[in-house]
């Protein structure tokens, strides 16, 4: 017993085992065709949305003589009701949507994980933090996002801040639940007995065992942020009108559903492919990291 207590906080405890198990799980995930296909599609979308705008033209360039043209060699995705190239607008819209998704995911996971672990390890503040979290989660996401947009005003940064505030509570709630389970494990008691600080326990043990739920929540937050941003832009409450967005492109196509099918098809496919590929990847990785979830 004394040998176990001595070696626990010095790195010979669960860290190498967790790291090796996670590394082997990721190698196993890369052998699954669904993960490879979905991951490849997601990477292609990210690369196209990141680099495409540098080689494309102006997404807001009007050309009345080329309005509502079907897909052709000159315009692979056709043109919209104002003569703008839809392919260019899809690329620029993808950059905005992915930027919102990644930024909101990063902020929500970082802040939510901090709140969740703090609530689990510092029980006197647990009640206060969780009541705030419950209060925010009691509002519908769209309604709360619209309220934040009305307070902060339109803009890309406003969308990121608003969605981060809305989606942090869901991450905090999941991380807190996992951290409470980990805090009751024997290795935590052993680390405390040999004098490990609370900060070391949180960083080395608790946080390491929260990686799997954090990964899942990161993907959920990303896809949710992309969908909410598109929904807000669809109703005109998201990005500014001069900023291309998949949601705004879908809104502009409502009056041309039958006469100009390409106006809604390509932005809709881009949005669907992004959300679907991200969900397939994270579901596969989650099943590999936590085989019990695949058997449920």
UniProtKB/TrEMBL annotation:
Gene Ontology biological-process entries = transmembrane transport
- For this UniProt entry, which segments traverse the membrane? 34-56, 98-120, 132-152, 158-175, 206-239, 259-282
Keyword Cytoplasm recorded: no
Keyword Cytoplasm among UniProt keywords: no
Pfam families named in the record:
BPD_transp_1
Keywords attached to this entry: Cell membrane, Membrane, Transmembrane, Transmembrane helix, Transport
Tell me which InterPro entries the record gives. Answer: BP-dependent_transpt_permease, MetI-like, MetI-like_sf
Compartmental location: Cell membrane
Q: Which GO terms describe its cellular component?
A: plasma membrane
Topology in membrane: Multi-pass membrane protein
Q: Predominant location of this chain?
A: membrane
Q: Which PROSITE patterns match?
A: ABC_TM1
Entry similarity comment = Belongs to the binding-protein-dependent transport system permease family.
Q: Which protein, by its recorded name, is this?
A: Peptide ABC transporter permease
Tell me what organism the protein belongs to. Answer: Micromonospora endophytica
């Amino acid at each position: 017993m004394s040998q176990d207590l001595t070696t626990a906080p010095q790195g010979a405890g669960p860290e190498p085992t967790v790291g090796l198990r996670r590394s082997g799980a990721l190698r196993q995930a890369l052998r699954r065709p669904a993960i490879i296909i979905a991951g490849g599609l997601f990477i292609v979308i990210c690369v196209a949305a990141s680099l495409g705008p540098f080689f494309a033209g102006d997404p807001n360039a009007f050309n009345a003589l080329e309005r509502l043209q079907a897909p052709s060699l000159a315009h692979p995705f056709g043109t919209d009701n104002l003569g703008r190239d839809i392919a260019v607008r899809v690329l620029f819209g993808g950059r905005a949507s992915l930027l919102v998704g990644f930024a909101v995911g990063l902020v929500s996971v970082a802040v939510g994980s901090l709140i969740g672990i703090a609530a689990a390890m510092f029980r006197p503040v647990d009640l206060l933090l969780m009541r705030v979290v419950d209060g925010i989660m009691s509002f519908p996401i769209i309604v709360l996002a619209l309220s934040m947009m009305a307070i902060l005003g339109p803009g890309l940064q406003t969308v990121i801040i608003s969605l981060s505030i809305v989606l942090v509570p869901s991450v905090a709630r999941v991380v807190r639940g996992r951290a409470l389970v980990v805090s009751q494990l024997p290795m935590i008691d052993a680390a405390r007995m040999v004098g490990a600080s609370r900060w070391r326990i949180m960083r080395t043990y608790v946080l390491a065992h929260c990686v799997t739920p954090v990964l899942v929540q990161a993907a959920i937050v990303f896809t949710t942020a992309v969908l909410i941003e598109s929904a807000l832009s669809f109703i005109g409450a998201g990005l500014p009108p001069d900023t291309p967005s998949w949601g705004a492109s879908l809104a502009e196509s409502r009056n041309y559903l039958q006469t100009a099918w390409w106006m809604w098809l390509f932005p809709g496919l881009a949005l669907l492919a992004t959300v679907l590929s991200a969900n397939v990847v994270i579901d596969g990785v989650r099943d590999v990291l936590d085989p019990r979830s695949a058997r449920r």
